[in-house]
Amino acid sequence: MTVIQGQTLWRGFHWAFFINVQGLIICLRRFEAQLALGQLDQAQTELQTATESDVLGTRSTHADLETPAAHL
């Protein structure tokens, strides 16, 4: 891998991480607001969205994390 390829790869993962964190912040702010209003059903929906959302399709499954590097 060249330096340029490494930098391109890093930028892609950095961007994906940044976007996913921003989405999580939005979901959790909405969750907090719904809790403050006493709307527990809507708060539950927001929490589920925060924990299940995958804006870019980059979410790893538990099985992905256990895959040996030789198989990647």
Layout of secondary structure:
Layout: H1 3-36, H2 40-52, H3 62-66
Helix pairs in contact: 1-2
Written overview of the protein:
- The chain has 72 residues and is mostly helical.
- The protein has a domain of 27 residues.
- Helix 1 packs antiparallel against helix 2.
- The longest helix is centred in the first third of the chain and has 34 residues.
- The radius of gyration is 17 Å and the shape is rod-shaped.
- The Rg value, from CA coordinates, equals 17 Å
How far is it from the N-terminal to the C-terminal residue, by CA? Answer: 16 Å
How many β-strands, per DSSP?
Answer: 0
Helix-strand sequence: HHH
Average pLDDT number: 78
Give the biggest sheet: none
